[in-house]
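Proteins fold reproducibly. Next comes an illustrative record:
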Amino acid sequence: MATSTIIWIVIAAVAVVLILAALAWVARNRRNQHRHVKAEGIRVQAEEESLQVGQREALADETAAKARAAQAEADAKAAEASGLQQRAAVHRNEAATSRDELNQQLDRADTIDPASTTPETPRPEGHKESHGT
């Protein structure tokens, strides 16, 4: 083989390698550009979804605030109900004491009154009896 033939083969091989390298470089650049465009699309979509997520977060915060307000109102109502129950118990005890005192007075009146027919019969709770007045 002549030297010129070898040189042409080497030149052709180098040219093929250069062409393959150029094709690989172009393919890589296209792939990178395609990936960049795709990534940019994902970023835009994420930005749009970020607004929706922000709105959902704001709604969640608002709902949580309403829940806290409702809980505070419920706690206040429970405290008010507890206070009213305590006051009702005091009134009930006072009424029972007054009823007992009233029954004792009526029993004493029945004991003193010679016309009374039931001096030894105990009065039922809440008993109201007319005594001729």
User: Anything to note?
Assistant: Residues 3-112 form the longest helix (110 residues). The mean pLDDT is 89. Helices lie at 3-112. The radius of gyration is 51 Å.
